[in-house]
């Protein structure tokens, strides 16, 4: 039962993260074509950084708790990179 919940949540989270990545690419494309200015682009994208971090970290922790070691090890580098990126952003502010 726990396995099914973890995989369904992982699937929904991955779909949301893919949608978010496409949104980032479209927004950056608008910036490149001068449809929006840099300040507007940053304000649009910055509000999605924390939800991205939380979503990916939750899935990684759930995979660890449910003992899916291989999938956990596949997700661990990305989660570690996101946490590292957030720590650097907090230090630089």
Automatic annotation (TrEMBL):
Is Transmembrane helix among this UniProt entry's keywords?
A: yes
Which subcellular locations apply to this protein? Answer: Membrane
State the similarity comment. Belongs to the cornichon family.
The organism sits in which domain of life?
A: Eukaryota
Pfam families documented for this protein: Cornichon (PF03311)
Q: Which GO terms describe its cellular component?
A: membrane
Q: Which InterPro entries does this chain map to?
A: Cornichon
- The name this protein carries in UniProt is Cornichon family member 4
| Organism, scientific name | Gorilla gorilla gorilla
Q: Which gene encodes it?
A: CNIH4
Q: So where does this one cross the membrane?
A: 5-26, 53-76
Q: Name one GO biological process term.
A: vesicle-mediated transport
**Which key words are in the record?**
Membrane, Transmembrane, Transmembrane helix
Topology versus the membrane: Multi-pass membrane protein
